[in-house]
Input
Amino acid sequence: LGGGVETQSITEFYGEFGTGKSQICQQLCVTVQLPYEHGGLDGGALYVDTENTFRPERIMQIAPRFNLDPEDVLKKIIFAEAYTSNHQVVLLENADEVIKDGDIRLIVVDSVTSHFRSEYIGRELLAPRQQELNRHLHKLIRMSRAFNTAVVVTNQVMAQPDAFFAKVVQPVGGHVMGHTSHTRVFLRKGRDNLRIAKLVVSPFLPEGETPLRITERGVEGEEDI
Ligand code: GTP
Ligand code: MG
Output
């Protein structure tokens, strides 16, 4: 990613279940706390969880790898569970104070689309769903600029209906997601339990792929594998 996730923009990780989206998000909540000279932003994280997958134990397990104190790291993560899409929207609309007070430099929404997808079902609700999702994503962009934070969202994939022979998947959220995520990374499972991260869209980098491995230390890149 050319040094990490960008501030003042949205980075989207999408892929099938178990590809490491939530693992990456949790690790970013640790690494954002690193000092600038070690690649961090010396700030806290706000984690909006829609799927109940955030695990404090996992954070505490990852922290020592980056020479950070697990308890301290946990204290600088503000966690909120969103129960519905509307709740998710309201949580972020009321997060300004929390972001300022908590010195938040990373906002995670994991997953940004799941509630919208499960609540707005059927053709006739597609337009209102996309409208609401669009509004939500633009709010996130405004927040990232106002507070100079990184915004990281996760997204699921669905099988492409017209792909008959090969298994082709595409991210949920259609053009709305596609136009608002500045950086998009597709995660898929590879051989030997590896994950492959593919940079699909970036404002300044070419397409590229890199292997990842999920271990007890967190998500490890090529240099660690
Ligand atoms: P969905 O949210 O279901 O779409 O999936 P996801 O992409 O968010 O997957 P997630 O990030 O939850 O990754 C799950 C994978 O991480 C599983 O394959 C787990 O085996 C692996 N994993 C999670 N915790 C650990 C751990 O402590 N050690 C190891 N080695 N692997 C772990
Ligand atoms: Mg997940």
